[in-house]
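Reminder to self: keep the SMILES exactly as supplied, no canonicalising. Ligand is zinc ion.
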Amino acid sequence: MTTATATFANATCRSCGQVFTYEPILVGHVDLAKSIHKTCHGCTTKAAIYEKLRRDQARADKIEAEIQASIPPDLFATDIRHPGFNSALWEAVSLWSPTPSEFWLGIVGAADKSKTRCMAMLAMRSMRDGIRSTWTTANRLKDASDDRKSRERGLAANAREHIQECLTSPWLFIDDLGKNEWSPAFEALFFQILDHRKNHRLPIVYSSNAHPDEFSQLISGFNRWPIIGRLLDRTTLFDLRPQ
Ligand SMILES: [Zn+2]
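Structure tokens returned for the bound complex:
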């Protein structure tokens, strides 16, 4: 068997019909390069560019579908020029990023401060940047803490899947902390999530109408300070309450 490279061979581009030259790869009398060079250089480059655009678009579509599946619809189209929107808070939130010393962000204050909107905008931005992010609410976690032991298998499976995402997702957003009932099952689950994510340095962004200290009246004795301590430890707190 001999392998030799001849000078150049001619072929007709399947796409534009032009004759182009390529370097044949001859094994005996067989040109192995013939089946590789089906289109001319120009058409090959163009096809590669279209393929990259198609893949980028497919990736963007997938991310938008994930956003639509996880972020509440009324939060998609936040108009940052709306007079009611707290643009100062968004400026601060958009500038925040996790550091080794502060990798959680808590946004605390009254209901009309655009806390959830700013959080949703940060979540959407991180998703579009390619960071897998999970959105939940304290009430949804409360439901999951009940449902994970449900006899309804579908319900239990959904709850466990959501809990798993909350544990391991690179970023976790928890809206409306404090709106939940502090049941023993919720407290245990909530502590598990906080503790796991703190130990693995996984960012959490949470919003709450109350400062975590105020939960000391509501959380049971055993879980009280472990939960409150973790909510405040290595956490940047944007406290919007009247000082
Ligand atoms: Zn061509």
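Points to follow up:
Residues 73-239 form a domain with the Rossmann fold fold (CATH 3.40.50.300).
The chain has two domains: 3-65, 73-239.
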